[in-house]
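so the lab meeting is tmrw and i was supposed to have these ready like two days ago... anyway. pasting both below. for each one the top line is the aa sequence and the line under it is the structure tokens. i havent really looked at them closely yet so no promises
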Amino acid sequence: MGKVERAARRAARSGAGPTKDAPAANPGATAAFALLGEVLLAGILVAAFGVALVTLPAALAAGIRHLRRFVRAEGSPFSAFWRDFVRALPAGLAVGAAALAIAAVLAVDIVLAGSGALPGGELVAGAGWVIAALAAGALLMASAAWNPVDGWAAALRGLPAAVSEDPAGAAYTVVAACFVGLAGWMLIPLVVPALGCAALAAVSIPTRRRKRTA
């Protein structure tokens, strides 16, 4: 195979050149190491801008949109992430505060259940962990659905429809959110790459649904 043909095939795979086949749906994701690096960068950005916890929803929304632009080869500069974060932050603070309140209530319930102070403690603790997992998955789904035009209200209102349309995808999202918590429980620094992986999962799951229904 000559150099010209190899170059043509590389251009076809990336979508940058003429091809007999349809261009890749996500041309930016064809280079595995570049994608890995961008996932780690997204994890760093989300962790850094979400360290205050109430800012985590805005950081997640901006990080997910950053990765979505990257896999679509649309260009993903830091300035675009920053614009998304600033736009998502005002209402995102309310979402973050509500998420923190829910997490605090669940944490108290789980601790009390584990102490034996509540009747049926094991059942209460198990229910608390399940609710926490579902809430984390809902937060990740809402962050993935956020956009500057419709805002957080539309993203949250759309959750029931998104779950009913793709319950398996919603389950995958819950697993991705739980992975972040598991990584943090194992070793705190692992939260950074785990956040990047969760953001990538939030980008990939709707794409999987579109491919299935196409």
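ok protien two:
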Amino acid sequence: MGILEVQNVNKHFGGLHALNNVNLSVERGSVHAIIGPNGAGKSTFLNCLIGKLKPDTGSVIFDGQPMLGKAPHEINQLGVSRVFQTPEIFADLTVFENVMIPCFAHRDGAFKVNAFAQVVRDREIREKAEDILEDMGMKEKISLNAGALSRGDKRRLEMAMCLVQDPKLLLLDEPTAGMSRADTNNTIELLSQIGETRGITKVIIEHDMHVVFSLATTISVLAQGAIIAEGLPEDIKGHPKVREAYLGETEV
């Protein structure tokens, strides 16, 4: 059994069948990419995984635990972190403060604003935050205001905020959206390093096929709410159903 098991998930929005009997098994330690044309149901599927949407039918099991019905913060406490299309950071705080807050919340299960002074003094949290930022190549930017960072560095900061929580599963929703090619390549390298040093399982939803084929060990193709193909990257690249689904919109 994989670390993430999705079985017979369906989701309707009125007359629209957004997810149609979706089944997915993600192996522990793998990089599993989910691709598909616009409107395929990728965002709906991801929102079902993180508790933002509840499927009409089906089950989602993470590391032996049922996830359906759990609030997003409860899913996070189980060991699932998500990286959004637009980096979600505290723009008015420093890089260092951004990383300390989720570290404190993960350790204690909650975060109170009036406890921030305690966080700053907490040696264990400070050292962990410093180590993560060093791993992300951001140690020299530790005192900068997060809102002033480049988009690529904001993404690295958001990754640090996820990793400091010691996740078992990292869900990445178009992690290179809006990036230059140089920042995209840096993000690919960063995600590869995370895989090598931490062994975190990753599920990536991504439009950029360069990113997908650089990182993925397994690819699932979602079209019109259903998985139409799944396999190794070399098998998916020339799959006739995949080419038909994209209708020439993306070279795969």
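from a quick look at the 2nd one: The first helix runs from residue 42 to 49. The domain at 1-79+168-252 is CATH 3.40.50.300 (Rossmann fold). will dig more after coffe
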